[in-house]
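Final report, Chapter 2: Outcomes

The project's central promise was a pipeline that accepts a single protein chain and returns its three-dimensional structure in a standardized token representation, suitable for archiving and comparison. That pipeline is now operational. To close this chapter, we reproduce one record exactly as it appears in the project archive, with the input sequence first and the structure output second.
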Amino acid sequence: MPKALSTKPTPAPRTSRAATATWRLVVLLAVIAGIGLVLANSLRVYFAQSAEIAAVRAEIAAEQERIAEMQDQVARWEDPEYVRSVARVRLGWVMPGEIGYRVIDADGNPLEGATMDEPAPELQGEWYEKMWTSVKLADTPAEEE
């Protein structure tokens, strides 16, 4: 009986299998490295754009706050009572029938309420003692430095 040829392929020697596996591993690592580079660049762009978006949102919030302050200011200026109070303080205007006074310093310059040096001392005692002490304090001139 003749010897039949087997249809099974002969196994490759171990060295060629190891070389094929190493070559496949190198190709796989190269593909993974390429994907990593593409993703790294995309992530860099993503984080840069994310930081830019955060900066623009902060700028928008600041502008919206400024707009709200301006709208509040416009609303105050539309109030006639506010306009009158500002005219009284800044321009020294008085209403018809009122008498306006200006307090001037030794040089003849007008003083404003904000130019007072120090607050009045806290007075002790009954109301009439406080009143009499305030009269005495008002009568004594302030010491100049």
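Archive annotation: DSSP finds three helices and no strands in the chain.
This record, like all others produced under the grant, will remain available to the consortium after the project formally closes.
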